[in-house]
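Need C-alpha cells for this chain, all 264 residues.
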Amino acid sequence: MILDTIIEHKKTEVARARAQRSLESVRRDAEAALSSSGPRRFRAALLAREEVSLIAEVKKASPSKGVIRADFDPVELAVWYEEGGAAALSVLTDERFFQGSLDHLDRVRAATRLPVLRKEFIIDPYQVYEAKAHGADAVLLIVAALDRAALDELHKLARSLEMDALVEVHTENELETALSIGADLIGINNRDLKTFHTTIDVSKRLVPLIPEGPAIVSESGISKREDLDALGAIGVDAVLVGEALSREADVPRKVRELLGKAAG
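Here are the C-alpha cells for all 264 residues:
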C-alpha cells in the first residue's frame, strides 16, 4: 500500500535527520521562530470569507501522477495563487514521493503574505519542530498514519508552537478519532491513501457527521467551480486544491475560475 511505503520511508528519513541534527537544535530554532514574530493564523484565514476558501497547493509531483508541472517554480506558483485570491497555501515538503522540500517552504513563506501549511507525512515531534523552524503556520496530521496517542501528542505540540493542525480523515472511524482529540480543523481527504481512489462523495458522507465547531476542509479531487458550490452547500469551509492548479498554463485564471471571480 502506498501510505505504508511512504510511512516506512519517513521513519528512516526522520532517523537520518535526527542523526545529522539533534532534536534539541531543531527545538531551539522552533522556539526562536515562535518568539521572533507572530504567526499567520491559518484556520482564521479560512473562516474569514463568507464563501468557500481556497488552500492552493504548491505541488510538483505525486506518486500516482508523476511530475505534474515540469517548469515548477514554488515561489512563482505561490505568488500566482495569492494574486488569484487564495486564502492560504499548502507546500509539500516530502522529497522522495512528491519532489518537495523544506527549502520550498522557506521560499514560499518569505515571498507571500498568506498563511502556509507544511504538507508532510508527520510521524514524529521532530517534524513539527522542523515545520515551525521553517516558518509553517500549520501542519498536516494524517489520522491513518498515526495511532491515537501519537496524534494527540503531535496535535498538542503543534498548538503549543502556535501552529494550527489540519487533522486529516478519510473514514468515519478516523473522524471519530480526530474529534476525540479536540481537532478544530478537520480535513476530509477524498483520496484513499491506501488505493489513491478519489471521489468527493467521501466529503459528502462525512461532513454531516461533524458537529458544529471544527472548520472543515475538503481535499483532493476538486477541479472546478461546481465542486466548490456543491461542497459549500453541505457545510465545507475550504478546499485544498493542488493538481488542478499546478497543471494549468494560466494559474491565476484557474484560481479565479475556482473562486467564481470574473477574469481580469
